[in-house]
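Quick one: structure tokens for this chain, please?
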Amino acid sequence: MDFKSSEQALGPRSEDVLPATATAAVKVVIVGGFGVGKTTLVGSVSEIRPLTTEETMTQAGVGVDDTAGVERKTSTTVAMDFGRISINEELVLYLFGTPGQERFWFLWRGLFEGALGAVVLVDARRLEVSFDVIGRLEERGVPFVVAVNSFPDAPAYPVDELRGALDLPAAVPIVLCDARSRASSRDVLMALMRYLQTLATAHQV
């Protein structure tokens, strides 16, 4: 009897296997307030089937989660999102998306362990939900870039105004993105990699 097909089914999918040329893997955390598009970004850019921990929102969150501005949202991340992208033949990024609600922030400590940098995803309609997120990164000393996710009804603020509203140092990059687009999300990650390289070069001088 030929068991070849069943043996193949038990093995990893070819697209899930790391390239043989990969020599470095970097952990990157995708953070942001509730409903800013973190799960969407990880899912759009990941080259493997992303792991998500989305659950249907229930009455238990009423009065606890701030859903202002995202009233139509019906599911939410309760642990983390996970994806992977190869930047080139040698460098691989492991992406960890954090839950946005404050009641799940206790999970952040473990997700940040070993992270080289972070992407703060921002909704220009609700900048205030990003203040505590940015503050936590600054307290931990985690380098980050800010990505302003494009929503159809979001106001278009100049970058300087966004920087002032978020109280960001001039060196922290701010980029515009569409979390639904793989190319746009990849550009965000590349901006983070360039920023980390700049920081490393400056540290060596």
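The first strand starts at residue 24 and ends at 32.
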